[in-house]
Amino acid sequence: MGKTKIAITLDEQYIDQLDTFVSKRIFQNRSQAIQEAVKEKLARIKRTRLAKECAKLDPTFEKAIADEGLTGDLSQWPEY
Fold first, then answer.
1. CA pair distance 39, 67, nearest whole angstrom
2. Minimal CB count within 10 Å: which of 16, 31, 66, 79?
3. Is the dihedral of CA 70, 73, 75, 77 positive or negative?
4. pLDDT digits over 6-17, tens only?
5. Which residues, other chains included, contact 18 with Cβ-Cβ below 8 Å and sequence gap of 6+?
6. Rounded CA gap, 33 and 40, in Å?
7. Helix, strand or coil for residue 77?
């Protein structure tokens, strides 16, 4: 995957923490630290959104739809 250079502005306290992580060799540089943080945050948002969408589902209705075809006459099913 290609990379694109961007410029961001952060509070000084975050820069200090990033620099500490870099000096302790937790990250190679600030860019790597920020990239990992963004990656983790995006993954967390994605999981949260899936959970919210699943919470909207009605389990009884979904089960009824899933079982709908199973209660029908098997002779009506197309032959493969």
1. 39
2. 79
3. negative
4. 999 999 999 999
5. 10, 27, 30, 33, 34
6. 11
7. coil
How does DSSP assign 4-62, residue by residue?
--------HHHHHHHHHHHHTTSSSSHHHHHHHHHHHHHHHHHHHHHHHHHHTS-HHHH
Q: Which two tokens stand for residue 1?
A: 């995957």
Rg (Cα) of the chain, in Å, rounded?
Answer: 25
For 42, the token pair is 């995006």
**% pLDDT > 70, the chain:** 84
The tokens for 77 are: 């099913």
- Tens-digit pLDDT profile for residues 40-60: 999 988 888 888 888 899 988
Does the pTM of the predicted model rise above 0.70?
A: no
